[in-house]
């Protein structure tokens, strides 16, 4: 009995299998996941910026999550409007100092964060 064709067939199958596995490993599994849209990138960039600004300027008094600290009030669950928050940041209030060094853009980003604090 001549077994050569069978051996040839099995080798071919094994080779195909190896090639498929190599191809799978080399293919980036996330390549079909669509890249973030411009808007999503802007939103996540703003969120990073907001958290950075908050920890640099506000967290020492209001806590890392705006939960309040000592005599400094919690900002969570507040019912202030965006404009009210922006004005408090710009002008200060009571023992809270005004933040003159923050740009309009930074005040806007911070107000949006504080407005949403739950
Ligand atoms: C030196 C401590 C201190 C820092 C720093 C500080 N705050 Fe305040 N903040 C206070 C105090 C004290 C009050 C309460 C003021 C009052 O009504 O007498 C307050 C009040 C507020 C209020 C009003 C809360 C309410 O419910 O009426 C907001 C909003 C606020 N701060 C946001 C911020 C943001 C945003 C930053 C960072 C840019 C910041 N604060 C930095 C001490 C601070």
Tell me what the structure shows.
The protein has helices at 4-26, 38-57, 59-62, 82-91, 104-115. By secondary structure, it is mostly helical. It has a domain at 57-115: Cytochrome c-like domain (Cytochrome Bc1 Complex, Chain D, domain 2, Orthogonal Bundle), CATH 1.10.760.10. The radius of gyration is 29 Å and the shape is rod-shaped. The N and C termini lie far apart (80 Å). The mean pLDDT is 91. The structure holds heme C (HEC).
Order of helices and strands: HHHHH
Task: Tell me how many strands there are.
Answer: 0
Mean pLDDT, nearest integer?
91
Based on Cα principal axes, name the global outline: rod-shaped
Pick out its properties.
single chain, 118 residues, mainly alpha, 5 helices, 58% helix, rod-shaped, binds heme C
SSE blueprint and pairings:
Layout: H1 4-26, H2 38-57, H3 59-62, H4 82-91, H5 104-115
Helix pairs in contact: 2-5, 4-5
């Amino acid at each position: 009995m001549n077994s050569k064709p069978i051996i040839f067939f099995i080798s071919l199958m094994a080779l195909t299998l190896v090639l498929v596995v190599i191809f799978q490993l080399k293919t980036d599994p996330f390549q079909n996941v669509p890249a973030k849209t411009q808007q999503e990138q802007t939103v996540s960039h703003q969120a990073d910026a907001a958290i950075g600004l908050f920890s640099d300027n506000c967290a020492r008094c209001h806590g890392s999550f705006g939960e309040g600290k000592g005599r400094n009030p919690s900002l969570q669950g507040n019912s202030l409007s965006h404009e009210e928050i922006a004005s408090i940041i710009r002008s200060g209030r009571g023992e809270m100092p005004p933040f003159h060094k923050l740009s309009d853009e930074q005040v806007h980003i911070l107000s949006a964060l504080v407005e949403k604090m739950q």
